[in-house]
Amino acid sequence: MTTRTLIPPARLARPRGRALYRTAFALVAGGFTLVFLGPLYWMFSGGLKSAQEAVRTPPTLVPQTFQPENYAQAWNVMDLSGLLLNTLYYAFGALAFQLVLDVAAAYSLSRLRPVLGKAVLGMMLATLMIPATVLIVPQYLTVLDVPVFERNLLNTPWVIWLPSVANAFNIFLLKRFFDSIPGELLDAAAIDGAPPLRVLWSIVLPISRPILGVVSIFAVVGVWKDFLWPMLTLPDPAKQTLNVGIYSLSSGVPANVLTAALAVASLPTLILFLLFQRNIMSGLTAGGLKG
Predict the structure, then answer these.
(1) Which of 62, 86, 136, 178 sees the fewest Cβ atoms within 10 Å?
(2) CA atoms of 166 and 143, how far apart (whole Å)
(3) DSSP 156
(4) CA gap 208, 175 in Å, rounded
């Protein structure tokens, strides 16, 4: 079986072919690197400029003035510490609910096989086709007066946690992973007398650490980057998330200080990705056990 490539292997064996391949690879890789890292560089370097240089036209590629104190000023003026704690509280609360409820839903659909389970999964996946902005109004009316309980959830953590639980994509990822676990392993535990919850806790979850890591990262980043929903449901400045708080306090703030605040808000998710990028790829491609 031969593998077809853009450049034939015979041509790659020649010096001219190798040079052409390396040149094309360098251009493509450099272009993509510039597209993705360019805005990040522009944001972090903009936070080091003076107020006049930050709004200069044409803009300067390299800061002519170096003012790292802009980041300290942004931290103090815009109360980034309080906003950061709020966001961490919302993000890890949403993570806890997603790990408990989404894992339970995916395990039920995968291993317990309820009646009409495939239809339920199909309807869940169909919701991925609906734009998130279309759901804003019905979700807002729901949290404004929760049916049955008749509670107003505005300005409470529940207004962030509860909508994040219904994540069809994470349930699908978890179910796909649970499907790949050999049935013989779970049958052996059942024969030993382990109930379904014990099988889930002692066997399935330890095996599923890669995909649980992926779901955890998606849950935290999903809450961290959200803007429209927290802006509508958390009007109290003391309870706002990082993105909404920066937007609310941006009036009258110099452009360089505002850019520094945005850079600080972006830094935690960038660090999270750099630390766990291997886990993300391995979790998305992981199967069950081999052999």
Answers:
(1) 62
(2) 14
(3) S
(4) 11
Specify the amino acid at residue 31.
Answer: G
pLDDT of residue 93: 94
Give whole-number Cα distances, 280 to 22, 218, 286, in Å: 28, 9, 10
User: CA nearest 232: which of 158, 167, 159?
Assistant: 159
pLDDT digits (tens, 9 = 90+) for 9-47: 666 667 777 788 788 888 998 888 888 888 888 899 988
Amino acid at 54: A
Angle at 220 between CA 170 and CA 92, to 5 degrees: 110
Pair 168, 124: CB distance under 8 Å = yes
- In one letter, which amino acid is 42? W
pLDDT at 88: 93
Q: Return the H-helix or E-strand segment holding 170.
A: helix 168-180
- Tell me the two tokens of residue 98: 């997603």
pTM for this prediction: 0.82
pLDDT along the chain (291 residues), means of 10: 59 73 86 87 90 86 88 91 94 92 89 84 88 89 88 92 87 88 81 81 85 88 91 92 91 90 90 77 56 41
User: Cβ(264)–Cβ(75) under 8 Å?
Assistant: yes
- CA 212 – CA 106 distance, rounded (Å): 12
Rounded CA-CA distance 143/163 in Å is 9
* DSSP state at residue 135: G
Report yes or no: 233 and 154 within 8 Å, Cβ to Cβ.
yes
Side chain identity at residue 28, one-letter code = V
Buried residues in 153-171 as b, exposed as e (16+ CB within 10 A): bbebeebbbbbbbbbbebb
Residues 162, 207: Cα–Cα separation, whole Å: 27
